[in-house]
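Sequence in, structure out.
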Amino acid sequence: MKDVLIITSYFPPEIGAASNRIFHLAEGLEKRNFNVQVITPLPNYPTGKIFENYKGEFRHSSTENNIQIHRLWLYATVSKNKFLRLIAMLSYSFSLIWFFTFNKIPKTVIVQSPPLLVAFTSMFFLRSKKRKLILNVSDLWPIAGLELGALKKNFSYKMLENIERFNYKSADIILGQSEEILTHIRTLSPEKKSLLYRNYPDFIAPKIVERSPNETKIKLVYAGLLGIAQGIHKLCTELKYNHIELHIYGSGAEQNLIEDFIKKHPKLPIYFHGSVSRSSLHKALLQYDIAIIPLLNRIYGSVPSKIFEYAKLGLPILYFGGGEGENIVNENKLGWVAEAGNYQDLNKLIARINTSELTLEYKQKIKEKAINVFNLEKQLEEVSRLI
């Protein structure tokens, strides 16, 4: 049995695409006869506070589903203050160095990036000719930070670019969540062995529910992080509600803004349902007609994992984020695409959607496409062969 260590900043019981992705990777490798360990911070995302069951601990180790999990201390925050966010990343990096110093590290290590600094700490301190380092890149930093407006091209940005290049150079194998990510990495490290590893979901999809013919309005739903990048508050303000209603699930930095907007506009058909468990969410989503996936700005390399999750549920997708995600939705006929950032185009597109299109047969085709094309098991087989 081969030992594998996964280093990540997100892991269950935290919610979200990042924690789900790493959990499925760890679980998939364990089922393929790997002895899997995971290093992750004490759970704190997305609230920025250490979860109640882990408060007051410096380290918490447990075995869950035959996976050994080491949860390390960090300074938890969701502050927009760049200094505090840096302190948070540095605190976890210091905890990692402490762990590396006093524990035996397997010869195969998978490192999640971003955060860039945490990945750098792992790549720098674990470099060895006897060790295989696999870098799992889910977003391109610092490019994504620049496109989101969180970073500016200055001395600090140049340092982050150097860290990014070091991480690629130090890796033996690179896993990329999108073709754009792999294309970018190949321009910097063309000699590196790489593999496309998308964030495909792993769940048994519930039976699709047929739409009631008595419903005249299209029930649009968003489920996920209510962060700056998603721009759900702006979406609420820009949508035309002539023949739609908007339902929102999730939590994040914009939650208070969204709730305040709903209170100030009680006549608008916007409904906030809060955060629910993943299994409960899957059942709830079946009652809606279309799932919207927005990004406030097009982010190079980013492919929202919601595309694959909604498709497996048989839920038609309205994609509003640009980039590679557009191609996936169009090529696989998963729904509709509006021009990124163009709310006028979005509203015109919604106005053209007829409820007669939202048939049970159409939803079933989407679900079958997802099962056949977005196959996590095939991906895991490829990764296990590389390891």
